[in-house]
Design brief:
The protein is α+β, with helices and mostly antiparallel strands and about 325 residues long. About 20% of the residues lie in helices and about 35% in strands. Strands 12, 13, 14, 15, 16, 17, 18, 19 and 20 form a nine-stranded antiparallel beta sheet that branches. The protein has a six-stranded antiparallel beta sheet with strand order 2-11-10-5-4-3. The chain has a four-stranded antiparallel beta sheet with strand order 6-7-8-9, with no helix packed on it.
Length: about 325
C-alpha cells in the first residue's frame, strides 16, 4: 500500500448523533480532514475540508439548506462535491469542486465509501434484527489500521491474549475480492470475569465466524452465544486509526420487550468490550512487520494479508 492509498471500502466517519447535535463535524481521515454534514432534507455529505478556492476549512462553515457554505468566501457545495453557488459569480468554473465520499447511515454510524461509486453494498448481519443495536464504543490507536483488522484473523493471539484454546485449525476462505472469512472453535480457558460468566452460563466453547469486508470492516458471529459484533476501522493516517465496536441482536434471541432488548444489548456489549480490553492493551503502537511472520503459527494472519494486498486502492484526491 502506498502513502494515503487505502482500499476501496466503506469507512466509519462519525456517529449519526454527532450530526443531530451539530449538523457539521470535522473528521480526520486518510491523512487529511473531512467536513461531514447533514442537509436540511436529511442527506449526509462528506467533503475534503480544504476548500477548492483558497483552502479555508469547510468544517468551520455552516449548512445552508442542501449545501455546505465555506466560511471565507461563502462558496456553497452539494453533497457530491460540486460548487453550486458563488456570490456575485454567474459562471461556476469546473474546477470548483471538492473530493467527496458517498455516504449512508447504518447502525447509528455515518459511513462513507472511498473510491467513487461503491463496488459493494455495506453488509447486514444475517438472521439478525439489524435495527436493534448497541451504542458504538470508540477507541483510537497509534497503530496502522491493517494491524487491527488482521488481528481478528490472528488465531495464535486468541490463545495467548484471550486464553481461547483452538480445537482445530481455522477454516479460511476468500469469498470475493472484497470478502475474507474465518471460522474456528475454541475452549474458554480464561479466568477473567467475563470468562467466568460465560462458563457459569454453560458456554464452555465458542464457535466464532468472522467476515472481513473491504479490509476494514469485521462482522463477527458467535454461533454458541448468538452474539453479533461489528468492528469497523477508520484510518486517520498511515500510523493512527479510530475503531468503532457495536453489537447487534440475533433475531431469534431478541426479546419482544424494548426494555429487555436494551438490557440484553447492554450485557452483550459489556461482554464484548471486556473480551477486547486485552487487545486494547497489547495492540497500541504495534507495527505491520510482514517479514517476521511464521508459516505455521501465523498461517491465518498470512492468508489475510494476501487478501488485503489484493484489494483495489483509492485516494481521497482521486475522487
Amino acid at each position: 500500500m502506498t502513502l494515503n492509498h487505502y482500499p476501496r471500502s466503506w469507512y466509519p466517519l462519525c456517529k449519526s448523533e454527532e450530526l443531530r447535535l451539530k449538523g457539521l463535524v470535522e473528521v480526520p481521515a486518510f491523512g487529511t480532514r473531512l467536513a461531514v454534514f447533514r442537509t436540511l432534507s436529511g442527506k449526509v455529505g462528506a467533503l475534503r475540508a480544504e476548500c477548492a478556492h483558497m483552502g479555508a476549512n469547510l468544517a468551520d462553515g455552516r449548512v445552508c439548506g442542501e449545501r455546505l457554505q465555506c466560511p471565507l468566501h461563502e462558496w456553497e457545495y452539494g453533497v457530491e462535491g460540486r460548487c453550486e453557488f458563488i456570490p456575485a459569480e454567474n459562471n461556476i468554473p469546473a474546477r470548483a469542486s471538492q473530493p467527496y465520499l458517498k455516504c449512508i447511515e447504518r447502525f447509528g454510524l455515518v459511513l462513507g465509501f472511498l473510491g467513487g461509486e461503491p463496488e459493494f453494498e455495506f453488509p447486514e448481519f444475517e438472521e439478525s434484527d439489524n435495527s436493534c443495536y448497541s451504542q458504538a464504543y470508540t477507541m483510537e490507536f497509534d497503530t496502522p489500521y491493517q494491524v487491527l483488522a488482521a488481528n481478528s484473523f490472528d488465531s495464535q493471539h486468541f490463545a495467548t491474549v484471550h486464553h481461547r484454546r483452538l480445537v482445530r485449525k481455522p477454516d479460511l476462505n476468500c469469498l470475493s475480492p472484497h470478502h475474507f472469512s474465518v471460522r474456528f472453535e475454541a475452549i474458554v480457558e480464561g479466568r477473567q470475569g467475563h470468562d467466568r460468566i460465560l462458563r457459569a452460563a454453560g458456554v464452555k466453547t465458542v464457535a466464532l465466524e468472522a467476515h472481513c469486508w473491504g479490509g476494514n470492516s469485521i462482522f463477527a458471529y458467535n454461533t454458541h452465544t448468538k452474539a453479533r459484533i461489528l468492528f469497523i476501522i477508520l484510518p486517520i493516517s498511515e500510523t493512527r486509526c479510530r475503531v468503532y465496536v457495536l453489537n447487534v441482536l440475533h433475531s431469534e434471541a431478541a426479546p419482544k420487550s424494548a426494555l429487555l432488548r436494551r438490557l440484553m444489548l447492554a450485557v452483550i456489549h459489556w461482554l464484548t468490550i471486556s473480551f477486547l480490553k486485552p487487545d486494547i492493551r497489547v495492540l497500541r503502537g504495534l507495527q505491520f512487520k510482514l517479514g517476521t511472520l511464521l508459516p505455521d503459527s501465523d498461517h491465518a494472519f498470512i492468508e489475510w494479508v494476501k487478501y488485503w494486498k489484493g484489494l483495489a486502492l483509492a485516494t481521497l484526491e482521486s475522487e
